[in-house]
Amino acid sequence: MSNEPDTKVHAEFRESFGKGFARRLRAAGKIPAVIYGHGTDPVHVALPGHQVSLLVRRANAVLELDLDGKEQLTLVKDVQKDPVHQIIEHIDLLVVKKGEKIQVDVPVVVLGEPVAGTIVNLDAQTVTLEVEATHIPEHIEVDVEGLEEGTHVTAAELKLPKGATLAAEPELLVVAIAIPAAAIAAEEEIAEADAEVAAEQSEASEEAAEAAAE
User: Nearest-CA neighbor of 138 among 45, 48, 5?
Assistant: First the structure.
């Protein structure tokens, strides 16, 4: 049995607009959305709230819309949420075609643990890829197991899924392995303390030598 979510969504055309209508729509368990792209005029629709809320948790979700019996493939481009309650207020959908290649920002996921005493700095949360609209990877994995301090992983070094090509700059820094700033600060403090002790001992030795010479 497949774990892939059902992306087929029944959408309804809507002709009413405005904040008041949008609130009534959301109260009825639906989400206002607009479909655009491929030189077509924007189409305003209402989507089933619960189903779509689950689907858009995945980055770059593709929805197979049923609009009055006509199928329309769309890519979720923007999800607008209420900043306080995190309720989806509106969704922007981009028209895509099967087999069409598009550019999308794919999340980066770090696997493994670097050498003890180091940390992973994820410098790029996403990487831009060119992929088929119906084969967008959920994420790109970066294995940092055993990597040492000073190791850098660039976009060019990422292992991409079949059919995907890099659209970001090859030299884009994705991951850097470093020593924590707190550890560096502690080492510097120890070094400073050691230097002070050495200076005091040197000064004491010089004073003792001077006293012996008198």
Answer: 5
